[in-house]
Amino acid sequence: MDTLSHACFSYVVCRTSGVAKSPRAGLLAAGVAMLPDLDFLLIPFLPEVARFAFHRGPSHSLFVALVMGVAGSIVLSKGLRMPQWRVAGLFFLAWAGHILLDICTGFGVALWWPLSHARVSVDLLFVVDPLATLPLLVATLWDVKTNWGQQKGHRRIAVTGLLLFAGYAASAYGIRKHVTHEFRSRLREEGISVKKIHAEPTPFTHQLWYLCAETDDGFFITYRSVWDGDDWERWRTVPRNQTPLQTFASHPLLDKMAVVLEDGFTSQVIHDNHLEVTDLRLGKRYGWEDDEAPFLFVYDVSRTSEGNLTWKMEKPKSRYDYGRLSALFARVTGKIPPHRQRKQYSRKAPL
C-alpha cells in the first residue's frame, strides 16, 4: 500500500490496541510504519540473487518485526520515557501493521523469511485505494485534533476508523469471492476444468477485478466487474510454458523465482542465453481497455559469457490522465466496450 495508508493504519492500530496511549505515541507508530519500505535503498548493494523480490522481502517478515520491537525498546525506551515493554509493543505492532496492509495487496510479503521466500497475500486491495485509505486518514487526523495534549486520549475514534477499514476489506473479500465463483461456474459450463483462480483488484477500486484461471494446459484471463451482470468480456488464453524456467539453468536465482511466482507464470527462451518470464497473477497495465496491454511483471533473465545469470524487470510506466480514469470508471460500472464483449459461447474452448 502507499505510504500514507501505512502511516495511518499503524496509527489507528496502535491507538486501538492501547500501546500508543496518546496521539504523540501514535505518530511515533506512524513513523515506524514507514521504515519497512526503506528496503529498496539496499537493493543496489546486494548480489544478483538477493535482489530478486527483495522489496517486501526480509523487512516484511514477522521475524524482523520482532527484532525491531526488541531493538526499539532497548535503544529508545529511556529517550521516550516509556516502559520497555510498551516501546517494544508499539514498534512491533506498527511494523506488523505495515506487513498486514501489504498482505492485503497482490504482491504480498515474505512473511516467513528467513524460513521461506514464498509470498503471503490475500489479494483484497490495490496498492492505492482511496476508499480504503479515507477512514484511516480521517480517524488519524480527528484523533490527533481531539486528543492532542492528553496523556491518555480516548480510543473510540481510532477504533471506528479501524472498523470502517475492516468493513471495506471485508466487502472486497465478498466481491472477490463472488466474481471468482461466477468465472469458475462459467468455465465449468463450457467444459473447462479449473485448478484455481487468482483474482486481483484493478487500480483504485475493489469493484473491477482481473481474473486468471489456471488449467492443466494454461491460463484463461479476463476482467470482471461486480456490475457486469450477464455480460462478459472475451477470455484470452495464455499457454502454460513453465519448463524453460526449470531447464534454463540450475541456479539459486531461478529456484527463488519459482518459489515467489508459484504456478502463476509462463516463460519462453528467446535464445540460448536469454529467458523471459511473465508473472500472470497481477494483471496488465491498463488491461481493462487495451487488448495488447503489457503484463505488469515481466522478468528478463540472461546468461553472461562467463556463465553467470543476471535479471531485470521491465515494468511498464503508469499514467492516469482524465481520459484513462474515465475509461476505468466506465468499465467499473459494467460498461464493456463492444469489441471486448464475449458474444458467443462454445461448449469447449481448448488452448
Largest sheet: 4 strands, antiparallel
Principal-axis shape:
globular
Low-pLDDT residue spans: 346-351
How much is the average pLDDT? 90
Radius of gyration: 22 Å
Strand order of the largest sheet: 1-2-3-4
**What's the order of the H and E elements?**
HHHHHHHEEEEHHEEEEH
**Number of strand elements:** 8
Q: What's the structural domain tally? A: 2
Oligomer: single chain
- State the end-to-end distance: 35 Å
List the helices and strands and how they pair.
Blueprint: H1 3-17, H2 23-32, H3 48-51, H4 62-80, H5 84-103, H6 130-147, H7 156-189, E1 196-201, E2 208-214, E3 218-225, E4 236-239, H8 243-247, H9 252-261, E5 265-271, E6 274-284, E7 295-303, E8 309-313, H10 322-332
Antiparallel strand pairs: 1-2, 2-3, 3-4, 5-6, 6-7, 7-8
Gist?
By secondary structure, this protein is of the alpha+beta class. The protein contains ten helices and eight strands.
Write a structural description.
The chain is an alpha+beta fold and 351 residues long. The protein folds into 2 domains: 3-154, no CATH class; 176-340, no CATH class. It is built from 10 helices and 8 strands. The chain has helices spanning 3-17, 23-32, 48-51, 62-80, 84-103, 130-147, 156-189, 243-247, 252-261, 322-332, and strands at residues 196-201, 208-214, 218-225, 236-239, 265-271, 274-284, 295-303, 309-313. The strands form 2 sheets. The chain has a 4-stranded antiparallel β-sheet, covered by helices on one side. Strand 1 and strand 2 form a beta hairpin. The radius of gyration is 22 Å and the shape is globular.
